[in-house]
Amino acid sequence: KEDIPLLINYFVDDFSKKMNKKITRIDKEVIDTLMDYSFPGNVRELRNMVERAIILSDSGRLSADDFQIDKVSKKISHPNNNFEVLDLNVLERNAIIKAIHQANFNKSAAAKLLNISFQALDRRIKKYKLVFEKRLG
């Protein structure tokens, strides 16, 4: 547990360089929530969460919104509580939309941001019937 802030910083540095994004701040709420979270997927799960948050981030600051952290994540760490199941299709669709916009409508770049192949991205775009039009001006 005490390694979580160090791991978060390591992953943020690594992914922000790979994605050419400058992340200057991580909200304390994010660190606190992730410290309380039980990671069933261990370090890989934390790594994936950080990567996704950087993809979703619109600014140089990582917030609870970027990590999609809310009260649900705190409930998940305590199995006795009921918790809301997040719709993975909605999360995947939103991540694709965000990546396409962030990559300036370049599907190859968006696929790299999402760490999937171009073909996999294309299949998912068709699955969700997404249409992207780059706006001029």
Features of the shown structure:
137 residues, Helicase, Ruva Protein, domain 3, two-stranded parallel ribbon
The CATH topology name of the largest domain reads Helicase, Ruva Protein, domain 3
Give the oligomer, counting copies of the same chain as homo and different chains as hetero. Answer: single chain
Q: What's the CATH first level of the largest domain? A: Mainly Alpha
List unreliable stretches of 5+ residues: none
Number of contiguous helices: 8
Average pLDDT over all residues: 80
Rg (CA only): 16 Å
Q: Strand order of the main beta sheet, please?
A: 1-2
Helix content: 55-70%
Structure description:
The protein is mainly alpha-helical. The protein folds into two domains: 1-84, Orthogonal Bundle (Helicase, Ruva Protein, domain 3), CATH 1.10.8; 87-137, Homeodomain-like (Arc Repressor Mutant, subunit A), CATH 1.10.10.60. 60% of the residues lie in helices and 3% in strands. The chain has eight helices and two strands; from the N terminus they run αβααβααααα. The protein has a two-stranded parallel ribbon with strand order 1-2. α1 packs across α3, α6 (88-102) crosses α7 (107-114) and α7 packs across α8. The longest helix is centred in the N-terminal third of the chain and has 15 residues, at 4-18. The mean pLDDT is 80.
